[in-house]
Amino acid sequence: MADHAGRTAVVTGAGGGMGLAVAQHLADRGAQVVAVDLKPEPAGLSTGMTYLRGDVTDPGLAPAAMKAATEISSEGRLDYLVNAAGVAWFDEPGLPTPQYVDGSIADIEPDVWKRVLEINLTGPMLFARAALQVMVPARFGVMAHIASIAGLRRADGALDAYQVSKAGLISLSRAIAAEQGRHGVRSNTVCPGAILTPMISGIYEADPSRKASMARRVPLRRVGTTDDVCGAVDYLLSDDSSFVTGTDLVVDGGWLTTMG
Question: 83 has which bridge partners?
Fold first, then answer.
């Protein structure tokens, strides 16, 4: 894993799940991290982490996060942006009953469609735009956006707003890579498959056979972990990937290769 000492990062969705894991990972390896989420601050944050609470769709939050990052940096810089905030709203045994439920465009509520795209796509756009205000003058910056294999193919079920938002995030990342590379800014996505996070762990706890069934669908015969995602993000942010931009790193144990 890379040494991120002296680097500064903004990580959204850092109140839990993959976002928190990535934020902690970077902080544990020396980075100063501004962790952003709507949830209350988690207990036990690593040294070097500053928590900023807010809604990623609030146009004022992204500039505030960049300001916080440049203020804690010894050189007033922002090195990394990780867009990990996102929602997938589905009603499954073992999970709390959601206020909103995603589904097919044939019957999804328009407000649900709008809100999912606001959080999963507009929020990352706002943070990327604010980050560019710092990265472009510095002629350096790296962005990693947490998308999904659903954005490359389709969701494993009717989650139309979710899969469209993730496909849009992949396209957004490629646009940033193409347009901002001349300014020294790189942008890539990580596309996880089945990852054991609080978003889905309740499903497997309620019915352990579903976890075993999912593992059998994956060529590597296991469900992924947040450590797997952290490793991918670590590589894409590090100098080891200095000639990598506009790509989508699939972290799914080979699951995508089995889909028609």
Answer: 145
Strand partners, 180: none
Gap between the Cα atoms of 194 and 197, Å rounded: 9
* Residue tagged active-site, from 51, 80, 100, 162: 162
CB 194 within 8 A of CB 252: yes
Counted residue by residue, the chain has a size of 260
pTM: 0.95
Q: Of 81, 85, 86, 88, which Cα lies nearest the Cα of 188?
A: 81
Per residue in 64-123, pLDDT (tens digit) is 999 999 999 989 999 999 999 999 877 666 556 677 788 899 999 999 999 999 999 999
Strands (E), 29-121: 32-37, 49-53, 80-83
Distance CA 95, CA 39 (A): 18
Rounded distance between C-alpha atoms, residue 9 and residue 19, angstroms? 12
How far, in Å, CA of 255 to CA of 221, rounded? 9
Residues 6+ apart with CB under 8 A from 201: none
> 82 near 12, Cβ under 8 Å?
yes
Are the C-beta atoms of residues 143 and 165 closer than 8 Å to each other? Answer: no
Cα dihedral across residues 165, 20, 141, 134: positive or negative = positive
Q: What tokens were used for 191?
A: 């596309």
Per the structure block, which two tokens stand in for 256? 């995508």
Angle at the Cα of 79 from the Cα atoms of 75 and 80, rounded to 5 degrees: 150
* Active-site residue flag, 162: yes
More confident residue, 91 or 187: 187
Largest CA distance in the chain: 52
* Secondary structure (DSSP) of 97-121: PPSS----TTT--HHHHHHHHIIII
